[in-house]
């Protein structure tokens, strides 16, 4: 590993966040400052851009240019406005186009965040995934529930376990049709996934730079099937198996991420991949295992800065 302390005292690292109280965001800021670099919290919603024939610049409300040496993305925020979310990712792409390291890349974050497209990438990589149907047709959705018997309905774009419900074919068809119609009106498309019978928990594996650092079980509350910690789930240490390790690394590679939280579930036929989070929280694994994944992510970021400087020095 390269010496991450070389030439970092004057480095300005932008940490993209939306919640100033977020544990992971603050761990990133702390670990950057421990290396004597400058850590700058950035909310993409506060940035503007100026374009002319001869100039392009990104600046904040004080009209100061955002001159950065690297960008680390903790959270871009969820928005149902196409213009808002597109502009945020376009800003990240412009930082990337300015030849500065951006972790994770905007493309990988978008790949992971889109549950439909990420599953297509997992399929191409021959990874084990639950059968999933995406449709805007109510009749197709009803037939899918009849076939799978139990389905999990998720937003295609979502986070923290919000908006996830479980529907069963044993429910009255009129109730199912009413609920699905309501979701169709709200979302325009339905993402229905076969429910995997499991021991009452899921697994999150943390991957950084093609290495699985550790894993936790996420145990739901007694009145829920959702293990996300933000939904009241409890993190419990999980011993990594080789199968978990290989599947998590392959899934992270499939979406093109440098680091990720990879969600797996233990089914009757073995492990299944549920999703990849390219902007994961590091709090759960710190609490359950004592592993600070943010330190390793910052190490990788400074490696990228050093690699960029060496490359520029030889050109």
List the helices and strands and how they pair.
Layout: E1 12-16, H1 23-34, E2 38-42, E3 48-51, E4 56-59, E5 70-73, H2 82-97, E6 102-103, H3 106-113, H4 115-124, E7 132-135, H5 138-148, E8 150-154, E9 165-168, H6 173-187, E10 190-194, E11 202-208, E12 211-219, E13 234-238, H7 242-255, E14 259-267, E15 270-277, H8 283-289, H9 293-314
Parallel strand pairs: 1-2, 1-5, 5-6
Antiparallel strand pairs: 3-4, 7-10, 8-9, 8-10, 11-12, 11-14, 12-13, 14-15
Folded structure, characterized:
By secondary structure, the protein is of the alpha+beta class. It folds into three domains: 12-104 and 295-314, Rossmann fold (3-Layer(aba) Sandwich); 132-194, ATP-grasp fold, A domain (Dna Ligase, domain 1, 2-Layer Sandwich); 198-278, D-amino Acid Aminotransferase, Chain A, domain 1 (2-Layer Sandwich), CATH 3.30.470.20. It has helices at 23-34, 82-97, 106-113, 115-124, 138-148, 173-187, 242-255, 283-289, 293-314; strands at residues 12-16, 38-42, 48-51, 56-59, 70-73, 102-103, 132-135, 150-154, 165-168, 190-194, 202-208, 211-219, 234-238, 259-267, 270-277. Strands 13-12-11-14-15 form a five-stranded antiparallel β-sheet, with helices on both faces. Helix 1 (23-34) crosses helix 9 (293-314). The longest helix is centred in the C-terminal third of the chain and has 22 residues, at 293-314. The radius of gyration is 21 Å and the shape is globular. 37% of the residues are buried.
Number of strands: 15
Helix/strand/pairing class, anyone?
alpha+beta
Characterize the main sheet: 5 strands, antiparallel
Strand content: 25-35%
- Across the major sheet, the strand order is 13-12-11-14-15
Examine the coordinates and then state which fold CATH places here, giving the name of the CATH topology of the largest domain.
Answer: Rossmann fold
The N- to C-terminal Cα distance equals: 23 Å
Radius of gyration: 21 Å
Task: Give helix % range.
Answer: 25-40%
Number of DSSP helical runs? 9
Q: Indicate the overall shape.
A: globular
Order of helices and strands: EHEEEEHEHHEHEEHEEEEHEEHH
Arithmetic mean of pLDDT: 91
Low-confidence stretches: 1-6
Mind telling me the CATH class of the largest domain? Alpha Beta
For the record, the CATH architecture of the largest domain stands as 3-Layer(aba) Sandwich
Tell me the count of domains: 3
